[in-house]
Amino acid sequence: MPEIDLQALPIPPWMTAAGIALAFACVMLVIKRIILVRLQRVSERTPFRYDSLILRSLRVPLNIAILVLSLFVLDALLHRFGVRQSVLNGNAMLAAKILLILAILVFVDRFVVGALHLQADRSQTLRSSRGILVGVTRGVVLALGLLMILGTLGISITPIVASLGISSLAVALALQPTLGNFFSGVQLVMDKPIRVGDFIELESGEQGFVDKIGWRSTWIRMLPNNTIIMPNSVMAESKIINYFYPSPELSVPVEVGVHYSSDLDHVERVTLEVARQVLREHEWGVSDYETFVLFHTFDSSSINLTVMLRAEEYFKRFWVKSAFVKALHKRYAEEGIVIPFPIRALNTTQEGAGPIPPGADQA
User: What is the pLDDT of residues 43-78, one digit of tens each?
Assistant: First the structure.
């Protein structure tokens, strides 16, 4: 290789080295882009989703790695051109190490967060806790990265860790309500008494669908389309009815009264036929449910019975019950089964009676 006469060049040697390093970085960026684009096309045709995630996570870290490599090239060129007293020459290696740590942290952060999002699409538990898990993961990665960078700079991290322990105690005392809500949210996610999408009833009587379990609060969308925002600490300590656990299906009892002169066996047979037909034909009925009828009360004007239906979920039970009531009313009319009105008897003789004569109660 012929020697380069630096004295004949009209520009300083350090500028020549910087230009060569910059050109090298540009060429590497173009090569990186071409390779990643082709690999991305190949990964899109495979059923494995993590290969695409790895390629997406590598974009920014590879840019940083190319910058680090360019710094090494710049450092070698500065040595080659005999530039010994340059500030850049002395700090190039330190900057390269810090950037390399940063590239690793960016890759880990993007990959772990992306993996959490992929798994959340398959797991109801992760879907409910996605926000909390992503926040905790990024906090841990950031803390570890900061400690690694400080160690690279030659700063002892032992006193920092000790100071952080004392500071964390003070912060924990100052932020006790906030931390209580945070850990209550973690408890809700791990224990899973409620999940995103569940229909629940609070101890105070409000009902609604769980929209989000966040860092501080749980969002519940009520049937009128209003939202209740409950602190996680209150949710964790409250009595909650979850209508979607262990499954959204639930029984729908319907109260019916028939006349005392009715043939109860005939009433039971007709009622079961109507109930089974409604559960088979209605879009929100559970067709394979074994419905049943129970006679339970001699009421003032009727014999009362309970028909047990089954709906796919709590909110759909209203439509199943409505369809059954209409079908049963029509069928009872066809079969001559009477649903009596309430009857009240007035004893006019007793109402118009005068005072009871002395000794009449002994007759």
Answer: 777 777 777 778 788 888 888 888 878 877 777 777
The answer to whether residues 191 and 176 touch, using CB atoms and an 8 Å cutoff, is no
Quote the tokens at residue 235: 């949710």
Provide the pairing of β-strand 250-258 with 199-201.
unpaired
pTM here is 0.52
Q: Is the torsion defined by CA of 272, 274, 277, 283 positive or negative? A: negative
Q: At what angle do helices 130-152 and 87-120 cross, to 10 degrees?
A: 160
Q: Which residues, at least 6 apart from 353, have a Cβ–Cβ distance to it below 8 Å?
A: none
Pairing of the two strands 217-222 and 227-231: antiparallel
Cα separation, 215 vs 26, in Å, equals: 43
**What digits encode the pLDDT tens for the residues 196-234?**
888 898 888 888 898 888 777 888 998 888 898 888 888
